[in-house]
Amino acid sequence: MYTNYVSYFLIKEKRIDKFIPGEIKSTILKHDITSIFAYSYTHNLEIMRYVRDNFSRNKLIKGGNINYSSNNISNNMVLFISHRERINNEILNNYIKFNNLSSNTSFKKISSREIRSDTEICYGNLTKNGTNSFYEYVYEIQ
User: Fold this and answer.
1) What does residue 89 show for φ and ψ, rounded to 5 degrees?
2) Is the full-model pTM beyond 0.85?
3) How far apart are CA 4 and CA 37, in angstroms?
């Protein structure tokens, strides 16, 4: 009985959503984020009140990317966020293309937070619906 009890909590901990609205809002405010690029089919931000109230959602872009623009643009700080994969040059280039930035645009990494998980969001092996990972990067556009 005790083994099942401990096992349940270990599994439950792996499945707890890493997209905590208060922490994401804190990152946005701390770095004065003016653009959010949710990539690789990351739709978690769409249900977060702070994001909905302060950012305009642009269309879904090829590859399941969503670009959000702040209602108050004051700088060039971008939050890249995903539940599936770490950031790479292809994702940065997709951001550049979508926002019609110069091909000479460069990025300076300000902060990052990565929580990798191989645990599926839902129980069972019938569907592969993404992991419970969390990848958050703050960049300044140069």
Assistant:
1) -60, -35
2) no
3) 40
